[in-house]
């Protein structure tokens, strides 16, 4: 007598499926990628450095749009790469050469975008070299404030366990430095971009602590 196969368990549905809930799920996916993907953490810190440059140097509209588009595109590619890795791991429970090649190809796509962004960033600086050369005071100020701000972002996205007060100090210190930089920022758009990155880093630290039960 043939025993009927047990049907697989039904995938649990989400408790809420409205528009706001969809945004919430997407936000959770973004923060999860920052928490668990090392390369995404590197992208967040690199984007903060880009924001520091955009805050300090007066760039044209085309240069601003290009830099922001590059940052967003790299984030998108890394999130997609993370989702693809999870999907491959779910479908293939043991080592498979095609699965490895799939992951490598997806990672290569992110690498190409990152290298292209570096080239574009360098080309923008070269094209605006006269502006850079005559903005010595602004650059010194951005380095003095931007590097500590970037350090705050780095602390928040690091995976190592640390006391809660360290994250709180890094988050408050980062927003205090950003508020100071905003008073003489060359671009409000890059100020908002940096604020968003700092918020993402803080949310990642919060999720990591919550999952560890700290």
> Got a strand count?
0
| Element-by-element helix/strand order | HHHHHHHH
Name the beta content range. Answer: under 5%
Q: What gross morphology would you assign? A: globular
List the uncertain runs.
none
Q: What would your notes on this structure say?
A:
The chain has eight helices and no strands. The longest helix has 31 residues. Helix 2 runs antiparallel to helix 3, helix 2 packs antiparallel against helix 6 and helix 3 packs antiparallel against helix 4. With 214 residues, it is an all-alpha fold. It is globular and about 60 Å long. The protein has one domain.
Give the arrangement of secondary structure elements.
Layout (H helix, E strand, L loop, with lengths): L18 H18 L1 H19 L4 H31 L5 H31 L1 H5 L2 H22 L6 H19 L5 H25 L2
Task: Summarize this entry quickly.
It contains eight helices and no strands.
List keywords for this structure.
214 residues, mainly alpha, 8 helices
């Amino acid at each position: 007598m043939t025993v009927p196969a047990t049907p697989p368990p039904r995938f649990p549905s989400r408790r809420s499926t409205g528009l706001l809930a969809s945004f919430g799920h997407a936000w959770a996916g973004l923060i999860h990628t920052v928490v668990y993907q090392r390369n995404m953490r590197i992208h967040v810190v690199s984007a903060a450095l880009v924001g520091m440059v955009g805050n300090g140097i007066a760039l044209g509209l085309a240069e601003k749009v290009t830099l922001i588009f590059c940052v967003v595109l790299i984030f998108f590619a890394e999130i997609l790469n993370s989702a693809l890795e999870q999907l491959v791991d779910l479908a293939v429970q043991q080592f498979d050469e095609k699965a490895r090649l799939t992951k490598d190809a997806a990672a290569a796509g992110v690498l190409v975008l990152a290298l292209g962004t570096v080239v574009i960033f360098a080309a923008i600086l070269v094209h605006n070299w006269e502006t850079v050369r005559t903005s010595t005071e602004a650059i010194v100020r951005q380095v003095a404030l931007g590097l500590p701000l970037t350090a705050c972002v780095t602390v928040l996205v690091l995976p190592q366990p640390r006391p809660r007060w360290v994250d709180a100090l890094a988050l408050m210190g980062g927003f205090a430095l950003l508020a100071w930089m905003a008073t003489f920022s060359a671009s409000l758009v890059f100020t908002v971009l940096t604020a968003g990155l700092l918020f993402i880093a803080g949310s990642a630290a919060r999720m990591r602590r919550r999952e560890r039960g700290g």
